[in-house]
Amino acid sequence: MEENIATDCIVIDDHEQGYDLDLFCIPKHYIEDLERVYIPHGLIMDRTERLARDIMKDMGGHHIVALCVLKGGYKFFADLLDYIKALNRNSDRSIPMTVDFIRLKSYYNDQSTGDIKVIGGDDLSSLAGKNVLIVEDIIDTGKTMRTLLAMLKNYNPQMVKVVSLLVKRTPRSVGYRPDYIGFEVPDKFVVGYALDYNEYFRDLNHICVINENGKLKYKA
User: Fold this and answer.
1) How far, rounded to the nearest angstrom, does the alpha carbon of residue 44 sit from its chain's CA centroid?
2) N or C: at which end does the chain have fewer Cβ atoms within 10 angstroms?
3) Residues in the chain with pLDDT values less than 70
4) Is there a domain that residue 62 lies in?
5) DSSP letter string over 130-162?
């Protein structure tokens, strides 16, 4: 399982201010808890479609097992697979795809604890000899993904690729980069599109920056 350097992604620089909340449909119960809309839902969807094309180009030769990292990855996972299924329907080279799920926990409030816990998931022995696509919402320090990759190696998959919607630029990074990246973002705590803060904000369509009021309100 090699760590490939991803070169193609949308890079959001440190000075990007995002968009006023008033320009988008934001649930009223979150209006006072957010600073700005950082990545609008439409942009997420368009980038996800392109990632699906890139993945099919690289992995579309035979059966893929798509492994969703819960809970934050479920929206990205569902939308990505919808685009892959559409490509399957409209291509002469369609491939079977099965899905599996694993749940990890490494955050307390807005900080990664560094203590990676596997708190759910099916028997992964079925991954032996398969091409596995791990679907993640965000790579922060990279410790969680390195731990997961080391664990999966024990099941002897044929190939493992990782796609992450977001990769965070942070001095805490261990240097890990996934094979496919949607957006590279600054070191800010973002929520929405199933990314949470103590289980809140998953029901927000856009990716937004949480403010101090929101962190205080929903602190564990």
Assistant:
1) 11
2) C
3) 1-7, 105-123
4) yes
5) -EEEEEEEEESSSHHHHHHHHHHHTT--SEEEE
For helices 74-89 and 41-59, angle between their N-to-C axes, nearest 10 degrees: 60
Q: Is 46 a catalytic residue?
A: no
Residue matched to tokens 């798509």: 66
Distance CA 141, CA 173 (A): 4
Q: For residue range 150-169, list pLDDT tens digits in order.
A: 888 888 999 999 999 999 99
Q: Would residue 209 count as lying in a domain? A: no
Instruction: Quote the CA–CA distance of 84 and 75 in Å, as a whole number.
Output: 14
| 31 in any annotated domain | no
Which residues span the domain enclosing 71? Answer: 45-185
Dihedral, CA of residue 106, residue 77, residue 178 and residue 67, to nearest 10: 80
The answer to whether residue 73 sits within a structural domain is: yes
Question: Active-site residue among 33, 137, 140, 179?
Answer: 140
Check if the beta carbon of residue 220 is closer than 8 Å to that of residue 108.
yes
Contacts of residue 185, defined as CB under 8 A and 6 or more positions apart, other chains included, come to 12, 38, 39, 166, 167, 168, 169
The whole-model pTM stands at: 0.87
